[in-house]
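Hey team,

Sharing the LacI family transcriptional regulator run so nobody has to redo it. Sequence (332 residues) first:
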Amino acid sequence: MSTIKDVAQLAGVSVATVSRMINQNGYVSEGAQKRIAEAMTQLGYEPLNRRRLADLSMPTIALILPDITNPFFSELARAVEDVCQQRGYTAFFCNSDNQDYKEKSYLEALRKRRIDGIIYASNYLTQDELDKLEREKIPVVVLDRTSDEQKCTLIRCNNYAGAQMAVKHLLDIGCRKIAHIYGPQEIVTAQERLNGYEDFVKSFSWYTPSLMAPGHFQLDGGMQAVETLLLRHPDIDGIFAGNDFMAIGALKALHRRGIRVPENIAVCGFDGIKLAEIIEPELTTIAQPIYKMGEQAARTIIQQVESAEARSQSEVIEINVSLITRDSTRRD
Ligand code: RIB
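Structure output:
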């Protein structure tokens, strides 16, 4: 499929000149208009907007998410949908359940529907897949979780610094033996938070790796991790959970055992989902600007869909996290 760049090259003008002629927003000499029209005919080029008008469908963005049962992702989706509606785009949401095969089948379905752009929160996105999407001229913005070295636009938060912020806060309120409930280590965000915790505490005399237990980023995982940790270390007085879901599960398990939060054990989560404000005690957390990340991803993908430039630039947009102190660590 020819692109606006191919037309510009054949006509001997810039992409901007072709764009001005298509959108009729600026001067284009008669000679250039003639050459551009001939090039379009020769290449069978259909401008994006004319093609869309022809098939009378709004441009469409897909958001591929790993777990829509986790409010972090549904809050992201909210922001993406709001921006798409403001900009006249349709938003498709695909839930991959963290399954590679589901992601691949969604990609095939989206290709068949000539999706205009994809926002991808995945563990399995490979450089080969990114290269293939670029060859197909389908722009991709990756959200939250993938390794930095992949050639794409990546929007994420600073997980490592956020984890250290959580540990420092627990130490500042007087905790002297802090455990960590970690997410699946095949997910880079969980790895970075575990590394942030461990690098902070490994020099303390009380530290031992058995102070870390898996919670799978799930509510029941947080509950199970508390049972494991208290069997190993009944004297812990602080827990940093790698996401709010696991922290909420931890609160439930501590409550069941009659352990008072924060008096006996203080608990800090990570994400800043709205649920953290509603539960009792309200959860202290390291908040990701979830809505802002979704907005930024949607605006970035729409800008890439509407621009003719090559899109394989590697760009990491890292958004800061913030500590939100609530009752689960308030010991004043
Ligand atoms: O709660 C789900 C987690 O998966 C979030 O922390 C988010 O960062 C993603 O990695």
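The radius of gyration is 24 Å.

Ping me if you want the raw files.
A.
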